[in-house]
Specification:
By secondary structure, this protein is of the alpha/beta class. The chain has two domains: 264 residues, Queuine tRNA-ribosyltransferase-like (TIM Barrel, Alpha-Beta Barrel), CATH 3.20.20; 96 residues, no CATH class. The protein has 14 helices and 16 strands. The strands form four sheets. The chain has an eight-stranded parallel barrel, surrounded by four helices. A three-stranded antiparallel sheet has the order 1-2-3. A hairpin with a 2-residue loop joins strand 15 and strand 16. The relative contact order is 0.14. The mean pLDDT is 95.
Length: 363
């Protein structure tokens, strides 16, 4: 396969490894900064790098609409276009099948989107077209096109979904152009039905991919259900391939998923929170719009700035406030991933997790 996953060590089901791509190596467990439209909102790529981020995520659907795959290809791919020269994973557009369900029409061939930008132009995305666009984007990790369901979902709908996901995965794999340092991931579905998760995992591993994502979780179900599905799903996936939990999540979600064998994560939470005056800290999140921070001299993380100053920026709606909080939050996540990797290497991940949770939740 074109991507190389190195499994360095394990601590229970928690894994410490690395993924080698044509644009560099990233360490796992990894948190990918979300750069949906070829930008991590409110940050320059230098600011993203300074947080310790090694890999970012782009989105096929959004980049297909603007500026378009043809233009990105003409500009030399996402790396040159955006100024991010490290590894890039691109989501296939499958999540938008769910999140923009009022603007989509599904068929066996693919999905028709009515543009959410102008509400008029229609775009038809097939598994093959999604892979083709991701090739134009020059993403290091291509995701197969799939359909993500809201939970809870009736069993008959989930069974149909699992079978269609497998057919689309096969078509995606056949459309993918193998080259050194690039790979394609399959996506396991099955909602909250363990036997359907098992069926989906078997179908995808039979097709064969460079890595395997677990999709259709963190879409409304309780955390306990997500963890239960992960406990049942990850042992079914190849040990020598990276495992990616899509769209997750909170620091506590990440810790629980790492404990169950997940290697890669992405979520808009740290960047979105930064744009809404929320800061992640070792003792939980705080809202910098709160009046109690008006004269607080506490320094926020590595910003070198007081909570009082950042409170002022947020109350005055200064762009700098969103930039500082976004960078701080992303660094908080990357520091957490670094500490997770170190704990796995030392063989004390469970103890680290318990201590982090006690501090983060106040006991």
């Amino acid at each position: 396969m074109s991507l190389k996953f190195n499994l360095i060590t394990s601590d229970g089901m928690a894994r410490r490894g690395s993924v080698e791509t044509a644009h560099g190596t990233f360490q796992t467990p990894a948190f990918m900064a979300v750069g949906t439209a070829a930008t991590v909102k409110a940050l320059t790529m230098d600011m993203v790098r300074d947080t310790g981020t090694e890999v970012i995520l782009g989105n096929t659907y959004h980049l297909m609409l603007r500026p378009g795959g043809d233009l990105v290809e003409q500009m030399g791919g996402l790396h040159k276009f955006s100024g991010w020269h490290g590894p890039i994973l691109t989501d296939s557009g499958g999540f938008q099948v769910m999140s923009l369900s009022g603007l989509t029409k599904m068929s066996e061939e693919g999905v028709q989107f009515t543009s959410h930008i102008d509400g008029g132009i229609k775009h038809f995305l097939t598994p093959e077209k999604s892979v083709q666009i991701q090739h134009q984007l020059d993403s290091n990790i291509t995701m197969v096109l799939d359909e993500c369901l809201h939970l809870p979902a009736p069993r008959d709908a989930v069974e149909k979904n699992v079978e269609m996901v497998a057919r689309w995965a096969k078509r995606s794999k056949e459309a993918f152009i193998n080259r050194d340092g690039y790979g394609i991931f399959g996506i396991v579905q099955g909602a909250d039905f363990p036997d359907l998760r098992e069926r989906s995992a078997a179908q995808l591993t039979d097709i064969g991919f460079d890595g395997y994502a677990v999709g259709g979780l963190a879409v409304g179900e309780p955390q306990s259900v997500m963890f239960d599905m992960l406990s049942k799903t990850t042992p079914l996936l190849p040990n020598d391939k990276p495992r990616y939990l899509m769209g997750v999540g909170t620091p506590l979600d990440i810790l629980g998923a790492v404990e169950r064998g997940i290697d890669m994560f992405d979520c808009v939470m740290p960047t979105r929170a930064g744009r809404t005056a929320q800061a992640f800290t070792a003792h939980g999140t705080i809202n910098l719009r709160n009046a109690k921070f008006r004269d607080d001299k506490t320094i926020l993380g590595d910003t070198g700035l007081t909570l009082a100053y950042i409170h002022h920026l947020t109350k005055a709606n200064e762009i700098l406030g969103a930039m500082l909080l976004t960078q701080h939050n992303l660094k908080f996540y990357q520091d957490l991933m670094r500490d997770i990797r170190l704990a796995i290497e030392k063989g004390n991940f469970v103890e680290f997790k318990q201590k982090f949770i006690e501090t983060y939740t106040g006991g």
